[in-house]
Amino acid sequence: MKIRSVYICDACGRFFDQASECEEHEAATHYSISASSYLKWKQLFISASHAGTHVGVRRNPETVKAFEDAIKELLDFEEKHCLSELGHPSNWY
Ligand SMILES: [Zn+2]
After folding, report:
1. Domain presence at residue 51
2. 41 in Cβ contact with 77 (< 8 Å)
3. How far apart are the CA of 49 and the centre of ligand 1, in A?
């Protein structure tokens, strides 16, 4: 028996053999950005999520500032690339 992994577009359900192919499809087809911008967006989203978790665990001026900075960077990126109203892929949570 063999096991085969597939990657599924979060927006339309199309199947891909490679994660990079799926991300390129999602970026170009559903968000109209390059694959590198898509990965940057995902990285900023995850960084902001982690910074929020840190504030929840240890709230102090340093963690609050890091969270605010991460959120600002994410929102600035989304505004620059017209992503603000599209929403993040659900598998980023
Ligand atoms: Zn799709």
Report:
1. yes
2. yes
3. 24
**61 CA to middle of ligand 1, Å?**
41
Tens of pLDDT, residues 44-83? 999 999 999 999 999 999 999 999 999 999 999 999 998 9
2 in a structural domain: no
What is the total count of domains within the chain?
1
Token output for 63: 């963690």
* Domain annotation covers residue 1: no
φ, ψ of residue 24 in degrees (nearest 5): -65, -40
Ion ligand 1 — residues with CB under 5 Å?
Answer: 9, 11-12, 14
Claim: this prediction has a pTM higher than 0.85: no
For residue 25, the model assigns a pLDDT of 95
Tell me, in angstroms, the distance from the centre of ligand 1 to residue 64's CA. Answer: 36
